[in-house]
Amino acid sequence: RPMRISAFDSSSRRTTRLLRLAAVAVAALALSAVAFAGRANAFVYWTSPGLSNNASGLLGRANLDGTNANDTFESSVNYPQAVAVDPADGYIYWTTNLLGGTIARAKLNGTDVNEEFITGISNPAGVAVDSTDGYIYWSNSVPHGASTIGRANIDGTGINRSLITTLLPAGGVAVDSANKYVYWTTPGSPTNASGLIGRAKLDGSGVNNTFEFSLHYPQGIAVDSADGYIYWTTNLLGGTIARAPLNSPTNKNEEFIPDVSSPAGVAVDSTDGYIYWSNSVPHGASTIGRANLDGTGANPRFINVFLPAGGVATDNLSSVGGPPPTPTIAALIADVKKLGRSHRIERSLIAKLHAAQRSLDSIHIGKARGHLGAFMDEVRADRGKKIHAAKAKALINTAVAIRKALGCRAHHCRRPGP
Question: Bigger pLDDT: 407 or 111?
C-alpha cells in the first residue's frame, strides 16, 4: 500500500522550514544592525589642559550619546592637549608637557597610565593613531626651530622624531589610513589667514606643506576617509568648523559649522555619522559640541565639561572588548576600497556587495548568499594577480563569516551560490 503522508506530517515539515527561515531572517536583521549594536561601549574623549606648570590637567569621557560624562576619567595629568584612541589595541594616547614633552598612554578603562610612553618630544600639540598599519604620529612644535612630525610603532618602539619637517610649527595631526596620508595643521597667526594644512604619505614622503593655505588659525584636524572630507577648527567669526573634499582641497568651506566658541579639537565618528568638537571658554561654560557629518543638527552644548576643553577623539570601532562583532557587508565594501585597485576591479566587486546588501535588506537570504558567492569567485580569480594574495584571503574570509551568519551550511560557506 502506498505510504500516506498525514496533514500533521506535512504541516510539521512546513513549520520546521518556516522556523529555519525565520531564524536566518533574524540573523540577517542582526547582521544589518551589528554595526550599531556594540556602540554602547564606544566613547568620546576630551582633554582639559589645566595649567601648564603643574599636573592639573584632566581627560574626560562620555558615551557617544552624551550620557555618563566623566570629567575626571584621568586626573592629575601634565597639561594634556591632543588625544587619540586605538580601540584595536585598547589604548588611549595623549600629549603632555612632562619633561619638555611626551606621549602618554593608558588602557581604555583608564588603568596602566604611562606618561613617559614616548619621551624626548618638543611641545607636542597633536597626536594621531594609524591602527591599520600600527603607527602613532605626533607634532613636535618648535617656535623658533625645525618643527617636525614624528612617528613610532604603536608599541612605542622604532621612534623617528623627525619623519617629516614642517614649514612652520605644527598643531593638530590626523591620519587617513585608507588613502595612506598624514595631515597636520600649521596655525600661523591668530590675527590673519596665514594658517596652513600640510599633507604627506604615511612613510613621510611626498611632503606638501600647503595642501590647504590662507586659513584662519587652524588647530584641530580630523579626516573622514569614508565620505572623503577633511575637517578642522578655525577662529573665523569667533570660531567655526571648516571642511574640504580630500580630492578638491581648494573647495573649502570655512563656515561649515558656524557659531563655535574658540574650538581647539575636532573628531569624526564615521560609523554613526557625527562630528564632535570642543568649545573652549576660558571663563565660562565649556562644552563638547556635536553635529551630523553633513553639518545639520548642530548642538554646541552636547556635553558640558568641567574645565575648558582641548583635544577630542572618538572610538571608531563597533565594540571595545569581548568577542569581535560579526563582519558586515558595509565593512567588506570599505575593505575593497582600501585595496586601491583599478576603478574597473573596484566597481565590479562593490557592485556584487551592493547587490548582496539589497537582497539582505529585503530578507532574500539565498540571493544575498549567492551575491557573496559571486564576490568570492571574482576575488579568487584575481588572487595573486590583480589582488595581493594575503588581502584576497582576508576578503574571502570576511565573506565566509557573513555567509555563515546568513545560515549557509558549514561545508558550503566557502562555495558560491545560495
Answer: 111
